[in-house]
Amino acid sequence: MPTKLEILRSLDSVVCPACGLVKKRRHTLCKDCFALLPRRTQCQLYEPMGPVYFDAVSEAMLNLGKAQFWITTPVPGCLHAVSARSAT
Ligand SMILES: [Zn+2]
Q1: For the residues 8-13, what does the mean pLDDT come to?
Q2: Is the CB of residue 42 less than 8 Å from the CB of residue 31?
Q3: Looking at residues 30-49, what average pLDDT do you find?
Q4: CA-to-CA separations, 44 to 1, 35, 55, 75, 87, in angstroms, rounded
Q5: In this predicted structure, what is the pLDDT of residue 75?
Q6: Distance (Å) from CA 88 to ligand 1 centroid
Q7: Distance between CA atoms of 55 and 78, rounded to whole angstroms?
Q8: How many angstroms separate the alpha carbon of residue 43 from the centre of ligand 1?
């Protein structure tokens, strides 16, 4: 499951950690992945940064059946490539 640092980096990126497609910066997941979560987990993802929130992110990944946690590197080319992928 993702570390706190990975979760923080993911929050600051525009790549959904679950599916690898585009999400909004400062959002945990993209809209599609978020919609698939149980209501309880969705609510916990709105908690302030802390144990409940970090647990909720791990739980969300489990719920979505994702073993891989996508993170972007701060390379402009990579972000561009991800944006292009979402357009298709
Ligand atoms: Zn997603």
Answers
A1: 90
A2: no
A3: 96
A4: 17, 14, 9, 31, 30
A5: 55
A6: 15
A7: 28
A8: 17
